């Protein structure tokens, strides 16, 4: 094989390998799909990680809440001078007697169970808050991805329109050279291109800001690269967006409602515990008494506190009742809010779907026909350049409306899934 051909083969193999490596690197970058972003965020998002740790900490409080207090040991050295017969001594075998008292505090019946149940419900509430944090983070990521998709497609559309304006300018220049159009038409084409360049700068800036926000949600450096968005998730069928069915799922699955329900139950147990504080707690003890080197006596003791401060206890009971009322009111307010948000987003998703269908099925084809007709008319000298520009703008507005409706549908879907606490 000639040296030149071998060199060409070697260069081709190197270029193919580089392209393969670049393609694999692009595949590894998150951002091509919303699922790839969610996988990274579930592992690295700091807000979600912090709430998970708080939920784990709350779960670890359950066992201590229901445990007995630590026992106490008391030692008493009695008659350390043996009625003056010796110097003071601290050795148990040389004093008159040594009393050892082992004591254990025991709460009134049922108090430990109530404390453990309160801790369990608080742990459930913390777990619900962690789940709710993830739902919020996932909704932000889905919304940001939809916005990024809109910016990406809008930028592509703007570049297409810019290329079209370059071609139109050439047509105008040819007609102007032939004396068929005014110089003003060429100037207007150039002005239109300048405006499009300005819009591209604004889109690139907004895209940069959106990249940094997405990386913050992913727990990545602000300037870390992201893959270009490739596709949007398909919207659910209208049958899946029935309000009555979704309302039942929201009441059963919404993380905020679940957390508030656990708080209500915890407040009920705390109220029951406050009423149990009317009764005394006990302390039991056993005490061996040592004389010289032998234990010759045993004692048993029982101690209880006398709940005389009934005014303070009644205040604690009223406090627990008020806290229970507050928890119930928060639960009701949360339910009203999430159901209102659900209704709003279902209507918004349906509207976005209708707008997209209207634009795709009617407005966009009509705008394309109008532009083709205006272009042919301008080339034949039947319409002016302003009419052609208006037709071009109609196509652009129609396509932007289509992309915007698609992105709006994704935003509404993300909000519905946030409220549900699960994907549709």
What does this 3D model show about the protein?
The protein has one domain: Outer membrane efflux proteins (OEP) (Up-down Bundle). The longest helix is centred in the C-terminal third of the chain and has 70 residues. A four-stranded antiparallel β-sheet has the order 1-2-3-4, with no helix packed on it. It is α+β, with helices and mostly antiparallel strands and 424 residues long. It contains ten helices and four strands, in the order ααααββααααββαα.
Summarize the structure.
The chain has a single domain (29-68, 107-420), classed as Outer membrane efflux proteins (OEP). 70% of the residues lie in helices and 9% in strands.
> Strand sequence of the main sheet, in spatial order?
1-2-3-4
Low-pLDDT windows of residues: 1-8, 20-26
Strand content: 5-15%
CATH overall fold name = Outer membrane efflux proteins (OEP)
What is the terminal separation in angstroms? 61 Å
Report the CATH C-level class: Mainly Alpha
Biggest beta-sheet profile = 4 strands, antiparallel
Write the layout of secondary structure elements.
Blueprint: H1 3-28, H2 34-44, H3 46-59, H4 62-66, E1 72-78, E2 97-106, H5 111-177, H6 183-218, H7 243-253, H8 255-276, E3 282-291, E4 294-304, H9 310-379, H10 385-420
Antiparallel strand pairs: 1-2, 2-3, 3-4
Helix pairs in contact: 2-5, 3-5, 5-6, 5-8, 5-10, 7-9, 8-9, 9-10
């Amino acid at each position: 094989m000639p040296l030149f051909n071998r060199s060409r083969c070697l260069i081709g193999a190197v270029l193919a390998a580089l392209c393969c490596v670049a393609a694999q690197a692009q595949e590894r970058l998150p951002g091509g799909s919303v699922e790839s972003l969610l996988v990274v965020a579930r592992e690295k998002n700091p807000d979600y990680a912090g709430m998970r740790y708080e939920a784990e900490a709350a779960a670890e409080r359950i066992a201590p809440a229901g445990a007995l207090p630590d026992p106490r040991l008391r030692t008493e050295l009695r008659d350390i001078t043996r009625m003056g017969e010796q110097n003071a001594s601290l050795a148990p075998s040389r004093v008159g007697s040594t009393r050892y008292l082992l004591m254990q505090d025991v709460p009134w019946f049922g108090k430990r169970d109530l404390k453990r149940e309160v801790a369990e419900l608080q742990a459930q509430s913390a777990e619900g808050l962690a789940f709710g944090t993830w739902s919020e983070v996932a909704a932000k990521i889905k919304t940001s991805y939809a916005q990024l998709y809109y910016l990406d497609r809008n930028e592509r559309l703007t570049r297409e329109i810019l290329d079209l304006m370059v071609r139109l300018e050439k047509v105008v220049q040819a007609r102007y050279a032939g004396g068929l159009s005014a110089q003003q038409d060429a100037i207007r084409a150039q002005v239109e291109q300048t405006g499009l360049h300005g819009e591209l700068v604004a889109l690139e800036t907004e895209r940069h800001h959106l990249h940094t926000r997405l990386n913050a949600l992913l727990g990545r450096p602000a300037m870390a690269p992201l893959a270009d968005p490739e596709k949007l998730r398909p919207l659910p069928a209208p049958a899946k967006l029935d309000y009555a069915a979704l309302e039942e799922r929201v009441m059963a699955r919404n993380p905020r409602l679940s957390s508030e329900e656990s708080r209500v139950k915890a407040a009920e147990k705390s109220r029951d515990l406050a009423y149990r504080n009317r009764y005394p707690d006990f302390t039991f003890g056993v005490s061996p008494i040592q004389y010289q080197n032998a234990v010759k006596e045993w004692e048993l003791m029982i101690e209880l506190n006398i709940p005389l401060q009934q005014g303070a206890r009644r205040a604690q009971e009223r406090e627990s009742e008020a806290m229970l009322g507050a928890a119930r009111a928060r639960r009701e307010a949360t339910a009203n809010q999430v159901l209102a948000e659900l209704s709003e987003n279902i209507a918004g998703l349906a509207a976005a779907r209708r707008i997209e269908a209207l634009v795709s099925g009617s407005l966009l084809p009509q705008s394309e026909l109008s532009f083709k007709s205006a272009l042919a008319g301008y080339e034949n000298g039947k319409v002016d350049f302003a009419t052609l520009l208006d037709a071009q703008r109609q196509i652009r507005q129609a396509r932007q409306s289509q992309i915007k409706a698609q992105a709006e549908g994704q935003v509404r879907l993300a909000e519905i899934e946030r409220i549900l606490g699960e994907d549709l």
